[in-house]
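User: Before I run my own analysis I want an independent prediction to cross-check against. Here's the chain; please return only the structure tokens and, at the end, one sentence I can use as a sanity check.
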Amino acid sequence: MIKKAFIIEAEDLDAATEQAIYDAVARVLAGASGVKAVRGWTPELARELDTRLRGRDRAERADVIRAMAQNGGQIDRNSVVEICGYNPERKINGFTKPVKGVIRQMTAEGLLPANAADPLRPQYPSGAIGQATGFTMPSEVAEVFIAAHSA
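Assistant: Structure tokens:
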């Protein structure tokens, strides 16, 4: 099998220019694969997020994201607690940290654009910071995540 590779000398580039190159390459590759990215996400990238979360022993986060996608991009705290098997009194503070870590890694690798939609955005009562009441993702991104797991 013959593979092609592009090498870009980035030694003298600032971080913003490097990120712009990564983002541009990700957009080009998404278009070349025949699958249009929706707010930065393709089914392949959604599956990659799922795989990486499970590989980091964070399957419950992947399960919550799947359930949220199936519910149009919304999930409440009680459903999160039930899916994860948590004690109902447990706080879910920090629940997004492993997901954000994987997303940062995928962005740094040039797989995901820096402006990709957050697939696990906390919801707070009346916009206040404190105990999250659930999580959301844009409905069009939820459709991508559904497609990722129905193939």
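Sanity check: The chain has six helices and three strands.
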